[in-house]
Amino acid sequence: MLTQTLTPTYFVIDFDSTFTKVEGLDELAHIALAGHPERDAVVQHIRDLTDKGMNGEMSFAEGLRRRIELLSAGRPHIEQLVEFLRTKISDSFQRNKSFLTDHAEHIFIVSSGFKEFIVPIVTELGILPNHVYANEFRFDEQGHIIGIDETNVLSTDGGKIKLLRTLSLPGDVYVIGDGYTDYELREAGLANRFYAFTENIARPRVTQVADHISASLDEFLYDNKLSRSQSYPKSRIKVLLLENVHPAAVRAFEIEGFKVEFVKGALDEDELCERIKDVSIIGIRSKTQITQRVLESANRLMAIGAFCIGTNQIDLETAARRGVVVFNAPYSNTRSVVELAVGEMIMLIRNIVPKSNQMHVGNWDKSATGSFEVRGKKLGLVGYGNIGTQLSVVAEALGMEVYFYDVVDKLAIGNARKVQSLEELLRISDVVSLHVDGRKENTNLIGKREFDLMKRGVIFMNLARGHVVDIPALREAIESGIVAGAGVDVFPKEPKTNDESFESELRGLPNVILTPHIGGSTEEAQVNIGHYVPAKLLEYINNGSSYGSVNFPEVQLPKPGTSHRLLHIHHNVPGIMAKLNSIFANYNINITGQYLKTDEHIGYVIVDIAKNYSEEFVQELKAIEGTIRFRMLY
Ligand SMILES: NC(=O)c1ccc[n+]([C@@H]2O[C@H](COP(=O)([O-])OP(=O)(O)OC[C@H]3O[C@@H](n4cnc5c(N)ncnc54)[C@H](O)[C@@H]3O)[C@@H](O)[C@H]2O)c1
Ligand SMILES: O=C(O)CC[C@@H](O)C(=O)O
């Protein structure tokens, strides 16, 4: 942790919706009114009164009096409330217990809530009991709440102001809270700064007047250069998710405390250059092009998540040279593509599409002409990777003979047979299915020459990438009868959103199944991807692990434990490690773990250190010639 301290400063912290995620009095009503026929309505009434008070729309004293009247609670309910509040302490307060204990002498809880439930909670995190200023209940002999201590200054309008005047703190005062009454301390000149705390609730009337907005305690501590649990506050990390990725992904980043922006469609290059400026993580699918220009506009970008298999839409090399790690989901939708390919293959070879279309206009054409079984037919797979091999297994189970051609020497699975050239594969196959990756060199891999090599009456399928097939040549092959049926899921030019129309020379042809790039679009695949890709990205952001990346040296790391972890990404040129190590030696810093992986262009070194470090040490590491990016984790 950074160990700088501040000149004498007092921290005045609110309780409800700041120290805890909820409003204590609202929750007390919820507990006390269990079984009451109108519980929801009464609790809602109490919440409305709380909100009015917090927003400064109602006299505080009046709101408090009316809430207490509605409560009908007693001591046992307060005990239950305390148990409940223990589970509702704001995440960033829990993470930063050491700040609360280390600065206990300078921290005051000033709240319009009640000591009976505030003291047990805050003292567990190191707050001194005599530094808690809050209201107190009055009880009857049976322990029922019958009112509040009206002599307590906090039960009156302007109570926090009056209290702070009496405290007369001898130094700077920073107020952290979510309510208007917290801001009023600043307005009254009793505080130097007011931080609107928005981790649990952001009230526009309060944030508008705040000196700063802090989405977490880490952000407050970061602003004030105080020791904290996060080197860089997560609430400042912006995640941009495009192309309608699964809600599981949004949740994963929000739970982590990141700021998430969600966009349903893709963005074009200009829009993206603008939107990506302050983004740290971007999630896309197949439509968004992450070009060199986009990457050059992305000043803060650390990682890209391709919520799909293909990564040809991303300039992977430029990303790596800029220290941006790219992850994809290499298997999450494989099965979905295979099932669609099998379904289409059977529909096409049976000539079902024209027959179905005829039925819709009233024509009954019961004939077997031009309809075949897949059993015993030769399936030719171009590309024998994850999808190709899985399709191979399923097709064999259907009784097909499987042949494949791959540029890499691949081991045949089951009874599938490897052929030596694309030409040979095209000549022998009854069904040709493309499953190559989208590298540039595969542009127009299948054109007129290749269609001319195929058997007359072949079934042709492309569920890989649009640019792999020369579309005019495919149209010609369909019209000339070489291709008897085609299934096409991917196109050289695809609409960016569902509102754009689809233009293609393949429209209107017989026995052609056109699908809108949905090979991987099943609920199962999308939910898998929605969990898988964020997990990879978070492992990289939180831990430094690049395992599974498609453009970066892969390192799988243990958790940093109590060490500080330094991540240094550099151009792969000689001498960098020697320079790094000499800086560690000069500052007498003990290394507890070191991991290094390089590829042709970059080096990625991770160093765990046991000792506190200074800002000069960090600056020296950053200044090493050839450094691309430096990050500190703890
Ligand atoms: N339609 C969809 O919704 C959808 C869904 C998922 C994947 N895909 C696409 O499907 C394709 C295959 O995916 P995968 O997961 O099997 O990929 P993969 O990387 O596992 O396999 C691709 C295989 O193609 C081979 N290959 C590349 N170029 C070749 C060439 N010119 N000739 C022969 N072999 C070649 C590679 O060596 C590799 O074995 C990718 O293009 C992917 O983007 C589409
Ligand atoms: O869902 C997508 O946009 C892409 C699906 C597919 O082409 C992939 O590469 O996984």
Automatic annotation (TrEMBL):
Q: Please name the GO terms that the record assigns under molecular function.
A: (S)-2-hydroxyglutarate dehydrogenase activity; NAD binding; phosphoglycerate dehydrogenase activity
Annotated ACT domain ranges read: 565-634
Task: Name the pathway it acts in.
Answer: Amino-acid biosynthesis; L-serine biosynthesis; L-serine from 3-phospho-D-glycerate: step 1/3
Domain of life where this protein originates: Bacteria
Entries under Gene3D superfamilies matching the protein: 3.30.70.260, HAD superfamily/HAD-like, NAD(P)-binding Rossmann-like Domain, Phosphoserine phosphatase, domain 2
Report if keyword Cytoplasm is assigned.
no
Name the EC number(s).
1.1.1.399, 1.1.1.95
What is this protein identified as? D-3-phosphoglycerate dehydrogenase
Q: Which organism is it from?
A: Rhabdobacter roseus
Organism lineage? Bacteria, Pseudomonadati, Bacteroidota, Cytophagia, Cytophagales
